[in-house]
């Protein structure tokens, strides 16, 4: 019968690579069936139960206790294995060629003063402390460690933002800086695509696909998966986006995130709109309404994001200037939309698109029941009325054939001091009114004059649907509508988005989304990577393999992992620096 | 002071064009300020109130009463106006050149027996009856009328489906058949794009944009906005899609709908997947998760749908055959997915994509809180575990560096008789395990063997993320995973969709979506339009203007609009035909 034996060690620290190696070595010993070397967290202990590696002693172990367990064929083999633990630990050889290993970041700094990056992958409970030291030395931080509290993350990022430094992480799996991969990183061709990602394997998937499709990258800036949460507020993400916007070698930006906070995502998108270059967006779980809005290209997934970016590099899109919005012309209190549609589908699409701009649009034929207008004849706040709905067409011609009802309603809406925008669709073709704009054009002029007389400004936006070959001729209709003073588009989406932007501006008064961070110094960021590595040795080995200079720090936790002593030391440090 | 006078007429029928003309003529009479000629519905009466055109008599009017109101400067002018009503009604001239007007469809049929279409635009309460007559004469029906009950729609479409005839409508605004527009229709170039639309102005917008972009159309098949509701079940939509799939001149199909029933939309998409040609889909309000799935291209709006269709004609996509799913190999009871991820983002994206295939996926890092796994170590139904989550990495190497935990879990899952698919991500690159597939490949083989021994089949799907230049070399990893028996992709989306299809097939046993409709005869559908028009004369005029032969039917409601008498007549007709 098998025998299980265990040993618990408190107050020691080894990195996880060392623990894993020990576990493997123990399992390979003669007579040993299985072995576990873990920290005593609940999940870890439950895992030991599931593989039959638990003893009463293990059950009592605490989170920061090192737990070593073996299951062997007999008593003897189990005891022998445990007795060899120290020998196995000390037998472990490093593959890093480095004559002297500094024991602190300060020591490393004096050996490699021009290092621009610090990689941190020590256990989560120590990681913030190391990152803070790195910031004090004015280095960018690649913070691989997870199990770092969100409070620590916020405070680290606040400090970094003040200094124009990037804190990538915690829990940042990957980054690519000037062709050098940090952490988990794929070997990707250099090229004009820059990625910011709150999504480690998301960034790896996008980068790999870019390479597979023949594209290449300037930067892959990881932020840690929590960066776009409401609490953290996207500090690193926004700093990264800003840096890539300024980088002349980055022609296309890709933004990737695990499900972000809607509020932070909105802010990121507002900033991205001003990047001055194409930005591909893939926020997982936030399905975009449109494929493209100005310079933003919404991807439907990681692979699509990569493909879109490569395509945009090959065929750079024309980025038209945004139309200037007549915000300043409106009187105080003007803020609502009144959409008077003849086409039901156009009215639906308008409602759908407007969800991106205003919280609620009432309608007689609403997309969601709760937005149903109580009385189709009385507009409420933002309202879209489909005048072609059944209720309006009993014994009455369809509004595409007869403008009477719509013109009457438009005059009513123009009297409402809260109305800013009136939206019309003008659908021509066989069957429709023979020359609708000949009536609507002058009516628009009248409505606008009415508002002006009352000291207001009324924007009338029209989408005109039809062709040049239609009996009413598209260009002839557009001309007459413009003569009436309307803003005219042939795309329903473009027209609705124009109106939507006005409404957004009027209803969310300029809460300017200013990044309080100091901008990242682009010159420093574009320097070759030179790094100090604190934690997993393999990360240093990888940098060496990529030809980047790196110094491994032989870091040990304060007070050799004794938490109480460490906290006393920390308090003394604070006191002395406060003096 | 103004005087308002009204007249109510019961049991009469005029089409809405006649009523509108009368209203305009009355309003133009000397001394008349405004006039209203409407049917006495609540909305119409409220409209009269709003323009100060109401009398106590008007308030009492019933839905089927014709209401005539004038407001004039004095008593005399008001009375004079009302007295001229009959004169104005009879003075109305038709612009249709037609020597003899048949008074019924039967009469029209004998005059133009080879007419293939009947256009119906009489008042809603009579429209179904006319449409039914048309079906009995074996004609396709363009049913413009609205205010037709959904029960009538269902019964009409059932009858039409049996005969392989299309009922476009009720409330169908537009259609384009072989270059001829029915109802409201734009003059659009002929070309290889066919559109099916449960969305009148949606179809017009798409058609107009196709023309503006230089493209052209075979057919524009309208169905009426309610066709994709759950009750109606998409009868006409599916018949139209089927016809366009078979039409050799249609190279690209576009599907447009106002917000459809999710269930019916799913069915349409399943049928569209088998169309054998590219299908562009724009279902308003149903934002697609992906840009493309096989031959389906999801557009983000009406304009995008048109642009995509034109682009797909220019650059026909390669439509690869679908991989055959190993459904038959699974044992009864096998139905669940177990996703064992090392990458958090890949795990999130997988959850997001799987919402299209299965109702719920549990996860330790779920997209929605309600899908949170109670115990990360115990899978429930469909489960995705991110083994790189904080809970697993305390004192343990990340699963991208060490396969131990994942392999143990895979063996556990392989023992579960309900598990059909195991999904893995294998992320290579600097920092990752030096050769993960050398361990995972044999483990996959072992897991599959375990299942086989128990009389089951286990599908292992893997996405491999990385590049050829990575230390582990992408192709080398893929080869080893395939040797282990895994289905391997480099795109996370493609891999997840493959797994999703298997799960869908295993969890929704073959409820075959058979269209019970007789297929539309393509030869007849492609014949030049020759139509009988019942209702708005302008629709006949438009056909004439487009060069299509048309016969206007001088239709009057049964029993001259007397509802009671009409229903007695209808019952007698039924009795006699039942004999």
Give an account of the 3D structure.
The structure is a homodimer of 579-residue chains. With 579 residues, chain A is an alpha/beta fold. The first copy, chain A, folds into 3 domains: 3-91, RNA polymerase, RBP11-like subunit (Gyrase A, domain 2), CATH 3.30.1360; 105-314, Succinyl-CoA synthetase domains (Rossmann fold); 327-507, Succinyl-CoA synthetase domains (Rossmann fold, 3-Layer(aba) Sandwich), CATH 3.40.50.261. In chain A, 38% of the residues lie in helices and 19% in strands. The first copy, chain A, has an 8-stranded mixed sheet with strand order 8-7-10-9-11-12-14-13, with helices on both faces. A 6-stranded parallel sheet of chain A has the order 16-17-15-18-19-20, sandwiched between helices. Chain A has a 5-stranded parallel sheet with strand order 6-5-4-21-22, sandwiched between helices. The N and C termini of chain A lie far apart (64 Å). Chains A and B meet through helix 1, helix 2, helix 9, helix 12 and helix 13 of A and helix 1, strand 2, helix 2, helix 9 and helix 12 of B.
Gist?
Chain A is 38% helix and 19% strand. Chain A is of the alpha/beta class and 579 residues long.
